[in-house]
Design a protein that fits this description.
Number of helices: 10
Structural class: alpha/beta
Strand order of the largest sheet: 1-2-3-4-5-7-8
Helix content: 40-55%
Strand content: 15-25%
Distance between the termini: 6 Å
Oligomer: single chain
Number of strands: 9
Order of helices and strands: HEHEHHEHHEHEEHHEEHE
Shape: globular
Largest sheet: 7 strands, mixed
């Protein structure tokens, strides 16, 4: 359901090229306190390759306090506790993970490679070691009529797993992706933007009932609306903003976030 990397083929940058880049930054006087391993889920790479890259970072930038990267649930599960601890000791602190939904059948339909129980187990393993994680989710992913169900499931999941930040994208329906064929073939019925706003309202309400502080940010780019704050501190402001937008779109014809052409998006 995503076309962000449609035109790209998997490749690994040579270690020599990585070292040259570290040396270039060092020679320019760079003294980064944080480093992000970009382009794909670098944390899922082979453990020996990760150790080599992280060791090079420590060599060139010994004062770097934090190394962050994208990761997947499967990538975490494939690593032993000893390997996870080793990567943590080499500086990895913050993982960015696509959680997407709290419903097992939706994960399966969207061809994610894990279920909810596996996600909970993986996140508990990294939490015990000391990692933080940001969760990426998508309002509307469960389809028409299931937004509130998904919000309840996600709130339950996050109350167990304790993300430091939640980034919520209202899902785009792009004509280039296989999911659009599922819509045409009536295997999937999308939710409209009003439903997505109501789903988010329910999620914010239930997340704010916890004592933890969660940085929260959502993007409804198709209708140019965003919600941002810290829960539970900013609950009332965030909910009021959502209520006003829900009221506005309740008086309009249904709006669907549909895109076409060669437009790449990371919200689908």
């Amino acid at each position: 359901f995503c076309n962000l990397f449609k035109s790209l083929k998997y490749r690994e940058i040579q270690i020599e090229q990585i070292e040259n880049e570290l040396l270039r930054v060092k020679n320019l006087g760079g003294l980064p306190k944080k480093i992000f391993l970009g382009d794909g889920s670098a944390f899922d790479s082979d453990i020996s390759r990760l150790i080599t890259v992280l060791s090079l970072i420590k060599t060139y930038f010994p004062n770097c306090k934090e190394i962050n990267t994208d990761a997947t649930i499967l990538g975490i599960l494939k690593k032993s506790d000893e390997e996870l601890k080793l990567l943590y000791n080499l500086g990895v602190r913050h993982l960015y993970i696509g959680i997407e939904t709290g419903l097992d059948d939706v994960l399966k339909f969207m061809k994610k490679d894990h279920n909810i129980k596996e996600a909970e187990d993986a996140l508990e393993r990294i939490r015990r070691i000391g990692y933080f994680f940001d969760a990426h989710i998508m309002s509307g992913i469960a389809g028409k009529g299931r937004g509130i169900e998904n919000a309840h499931a996600l709130a339950k999941f996050f109350n167990k797993t304790h993300p430091s930040r939640i980034i919520n994208f209202s899902m785009f329906l792009h004509e280039e992706v296989p999911l659009f064929n599922d819509i045409k073939n009536k295997k999937y019925t999308p939710a409209d933007e009003l439903s997505n706003l109501k789903e988010e309202e329910c999620l914010v309400e239930e997340l704010s009932s916890t004592k933890q502080n969660i940085e929260y940010e959502s993007f409804h780019d198709y209708i140019e609306f965003r919600v941002r704050g810290k829960l539970p501190k900013d609950k009332d402001i965030m909910l009021e903003s959502l209520k006003q937008k829900i009221l506005f779109y309740s008086q309009k014809e249904p709006i669907y976030a549909i895109a076409s052409g060669e437009r790449s998006t990371d919200t689908l």
